[in-house]
Design a protein that fits this description.
By secondary structure, this protein is an alpha/beta fold. It is 36% helix and 22% strand. The strands form three sheets. Strands 3-2-1-4-5-8-11-12 form an eight-stranded mixed sheet, sandwiched between helices. A two-stranded antiparallel ribbon has the order 6-7. A two-stranded antiparallel ribbon has the order 9-10. Strand 9 (141-142) and strand 10 form a beta hairpin. Helix 1 packs parallel to helix 2 and helix 4 (70-76) runs parallel beside helix 6. The chain is globular and about 60 Å long. The protein binds NADP nicotinamide-adenine-dinucleotide phosphate. NADP nicotinamide-adenine-dinucleotide phosphate (NAP) binds at residues 7-12, 30-32, 35, 51, 64-67, 69, 73, 89-91, 128, 131-132. Keywords: Oxidoreductase. It comes from Micromonospora citrea.
């Protein structure tokens, strides 16, 4: 699959590397061409270019810039992103005296803001729950169980593209409903990251009822 990446930082490197290893045609797009070239070389991507180049290249386009910058960037690229699957991995979180808080009104989400600003793009929320280091694992597997990657999507075709992005790097897609539920993925990240920062282990907090031993 052709994948464009908006951004040249940690997530662009980790996911760009994973998708390149999986055989996808990845183009790293950045506002700084030296950095885009360096990141592309680091991960063995097929190419690098401007943010516009990345938006035009991808059947799928990963938004890997700060959450505060993402709506403006996607607005600027809206025409180029039309008809493409736009994968939003951003986390709109900010430290406050009360702990890590969402930086958007909890009734909405960055993903919905992106969808509103680029209505012809097919926005998906995914890949935001795990730290960048997890995406560098080949594959991300824990205790022989592939990592589950929750995602929210409105468009069936974009859901299919997202499932390919997830399964091709050895993970298991976990459909979590439409984009109206992306706010929950963003809030979950705020809660989980806040727990990690205070020494907690969110992974241990979500056993399913099916795991309760029978007497
Ligand atoms: N790090 C994690 O563990 C993690 C995990 C899950 C999700 N996320 C989310 O993924 C996104 C990227 O995180 P990251 O760790 O990759 O960040 P990062 O390493 O700081 O990289 C951010 C990238 O965004 C670019 N950028 C910043 N402002 C921009 C703008 N206005 N227009 C275009 N490009 C801009 C930067 O370009 P320059 O180099 O030119 O400044 C850089 O390439 C964030 O939204 C974050 O919340 C991160």
């Amino acid at each position: 699959m052709r994948i464009g990446i908006l951004g040249t930082g940690g997530m662009a490197t980790a996911l760009g590397g994973a998708w390149t290893t999986a055989g996808h045609d990845v183009l790293i797009g950045g506002r700084d061409q030296e950095r885009a070239e360096r990141t592309a070389a680091l991960v063995g991507a097929a190419g690098h270019g401007s943010l516009t180049d990345a938006a035009r290249h991808g059947e799928a386009v990963l938004v890997a810039v700060p959450a505060t910058q993402a709506p403006h960037l996607v607005d600027h690229l809206a025409a180029d992103l039309a008809g493409r699957t736009v994968v939003d991995c951003t986390n709109p979180i900010t430290p406050t005296g009360e702990g890590l808080m969402l930086a958007v009104d909890g009734a909405t989400s960055v993903a919905r803001q992106l969808a509103a600003t680029a209505p012809d793009a097919h926005v998906v929320k995914a890949f935001n729950l795990c730290h960048v280091s997890i995406w560098t694992l080949r594959p991300p597997t824990f205790e022989d169980v592939p990592l589950a990657v929750p995602y929210c999507a409105d468009h069936p075709a974009a859901a299919t593209v997202t499932e390919t992005l997830i399964s091709s790097i050895g993970c298991t897609p976990a459909a979590c409903g439409g984009l109206a539920r992306a706010a929950y993925l963003e809030a979950t990240a705020a809660l989980a990251i806040g727990l990690w920062w205070t020494g907690g282990q969110p992974r241990a907090a979500f056993p399913s009822p099916g795991e309760v031993p029978h007497p």
